[in-house]
What does this fold into?
Amino acid sequence: MNRIRAKILGTGKSLPQKILTNADLEKIVETSDEWIRTRTGIQERRIAEPSEATSDLAIAAAKIALENARVQPDQIEAIFTSTCTPDMFFPSVSCLVQSALGAKNSAAMDISAACSGFIYGLATAKGFIESGTFKTVLVIGVDTLSKITNWKDRATCVLFGDGAGAAVIQSSQDGSGILSVFLGADGNEAEILKVPAGGSRLPASPEVLEKNLCSIRMNGPEVYKLAVTKMVKASEKAAEMAGIQCSDLKLIIPHQANLRIIDSVAKRLNLGPEKVFVNVQKYGNMSAATTIVALDEAQKEGRIQRGDLVELVAFGAGLTWGASVIRW
Ligand code: UT7
It folds into this structure.
């Protein structure tokens, strides 16, 4: 009998209807479609309506994932939502999702690991499932970074988009599932990517809002360099933990922040374009939602078949990073 593993049974995604193109951004800040395409690979992104909150996207993605997994809400024993843009400080997005789904037998908590959040969520689900604590877990990666973007800062506002992805994960003994997870963090680099105010250090006030301190600040080039090195290391480490070589992978699904970062990571891992999933052109950087939305699309586009080895890898504020090898 194979050992108990956490296996992804079904996935789903939800994206806002509203599309913001590079041409639209040219009217908001001093930028150009050419600059954005050549520096980032992004062509358009989805933006939530003022009335659309993080939990709305999370709930929609979760319903699709449950349907695809053929799992009923009352079978879910835990909901872990990774987000850095919750509806409010509390209750958690996970509790709002639990209520909307009618998942009455479920525990619920949020995970804060920025863009690496979905992989941190997978790791949490894997631990609880392999320990025998839970059998069926819902993991969501969701963010609405547009709500905390400084729309006057061209260095950041062109990069982000909103979205949600969800995965239903269940214990399995058929040999497939999550083979490894590697997680890392470095709080010494917290300053290079952060939202300075709005929390307990500097609560929101008219002065704070006037200075736009409740929005994202980023040292782009520093984040860029670290994103490449940490994602390469994490990918290699998770592969080693799974007992495979990166060359054995059918597909790598990297965090979608910048096409140049994705290309550098793939080159250093010696993976050709046919082994790399890219959708950053359509959505920009959706933070915790990127890897799970990409996994959902890769599967639906037929890029992953049963038995294939797939690796997710991400990097984000904190700093945080992580990678996971999955046998599909
Ligand atoms: O999810 C994890 C977190 N995020 C990331 O992984 C993002 C990591 N960083 C990046 O992707 C890149 O650093 C950026 C796309 C943010 C920037 O690309 P870059 O090649 O590092 O450009 P830069 O910041 O060095 O800026 C180059 C020039 C500057 O002008 P000068 O000083 O050379 O005259 C910027 O002012 O480009 C200018 N610039 C822009 N120009 C037109 C910056 N943003 C824009 C813009 N449009 N939107």
Q: What stands out?
A: The chain has two domains: 5-173, 179-327. Residues 31, 35, 39-40, 115, 154-155, 158, 193, 220-221, 223-224, 227, 255, 257-258, 261, 285, 315-316 surround oxa(dethia)-CoA (CB under 6 Å). The first strand starts at residue 5 and ends at 14. The chain has eleven helices and 13 strands.
